[in-house]
Amino acid sequence: MTKAADPAKVRERVRAFALGLPGTVEEFPWGESVIKVNKKVFVFLGVGDGSHPFGVTLKLKAPEVHAHALTSPGAQPAGYGLGRSGWVRVPLTERGAPPAELLCDWAEESYRVIAPKKLIAELDGG
Question: Residues 15-43: pLDDT tens digits?
């Protein structure tokens, strides 16, 4: 049986990946970490001090990606009405939580939904 990944380390890998995408910045509205592109959030990371369970929230519009994310243990449409727009909250502390690599793929998917075409072209090497 494989040992579950450390949720704090998984969160940090997703954070570092998201900040490596073109034109991204980290901000702390409500005391929580969010990663933005073009002044719009594409990843919610919550608080990183361990006072709340670790998780990420991403905007996943492709039906198959959205459905796959919702099969993660404890995953659910995001609160505050965001779930209706494709946002999914994925807990990192649940047994069987997605690995960092998959979460980074989903972070890129969320980025592509939010980012302007110019930055997507830069990401794609164009």
Answer: 999 999 999 999 999 899 999 999 999 99
Above pLDDT 90, what percent of the chain? 83
- Let me know: does 24 contact 37? Beta carbons within 8 Å: yes
Q: Which of 53, 47, 18 is nearest to 31 (CA)?
A: 47
Cross-strand pairs, 27: 34
Distance between CA atoms of 105 and 102, rounded to whole angstroms? 5
Whole-prediction pTM = 0.92
For residue 40, the tally of other CB atoms under 10 A from its CB is 12
